[in-house]
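Case study 2.
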Amino acid sequence: MLHARAVAVGFTLLTVAKTMTSVAATASSEPRGLHASVTPDARTGSPQQRLQKLLAVPGHQPSRMNDLLLLRPETDSPTAEEKSNNKHVVFFHGDIQNFEEDMALQPEGSQWLRWSLEQVALTLGRRFPDRHVWMVRASNMYLHKFSCYHNFVESNMFGAPEHSAYSTDFGAFLHLRDLLSHGMERADLPHPLQPQGGADSIPSGFSLILVGFSKGCVVLNQMVYELPGARADPQLSHFIKQITDMFWLDGGHPGGSETWVTDKQVLKELASSGVSIHAHVTPYEVCDPMRAWVGREHTLFIKTLEEFGACPSKKLHFEDEPPSIENHFRVIQEF
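Prediction:
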């Protein structure tokens, strides 16, 4: 059952239902299939010039597409550096976050422009200066604010997930791998990841960090559920081995449970995977008495991983400040 508060935005579903019931689900209005061309500035210029928008990039199936935003790492010698630099960060955003131009058109989005995909990419570029930063835009933004990652995990219109085990037909890992492969080719990066294959399909030096914020954490959660099956698949296991870190940033969604993974069997698999696990939260999510299960699940997530021998890094940010949406977003800067 959907909870009354829309996580990461602060608008209640009840208010939405009363004021916007006549509005249908809305996908991105941007022209599909267009993308920015690669210019010399995109490789060596200012941070804004190193941003490249890639629209309608196909994933595991041609019909499953996501828009991407790429921030290239700054380098004084692009040819030599990019040949050796195949390190990447992938970010999954929360509700209300979108491309800057889309957010500016929405009254509720315009007040949060500093957390647009472009601005967050620049923030992550400072946090990971030697990596390519990929922003994955949710495939649908219901009512222009509820991020729905349908291509990664089965979800309702508000983005509340229905997690499932690994499948060779539909899955978060499969979609991410193909999405990155096609995105790297579209961006004309040297030595792109291959969409299929074993160890020989992974380019030299390739490594991956995954970051989910708020609603975007549902993608990371789905990957945790898929881990046992995906690690056993020779077509995917070598790709998963290149994931060095997973960051959960103040995870939340409008469902009434499974904000954090608590299944012991899949957490045992995560603990043994070798991935470094990071959980950064704020009182906005884990100290809300109206959604007490979020804090309980977060505690159980950490405790279970520790019981299985993992050493997840964890931090409660802004614990001495009142819960606020602003601090919810600020965890992106502070983690």
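The two ends are 31 Å apart (CA to CA).
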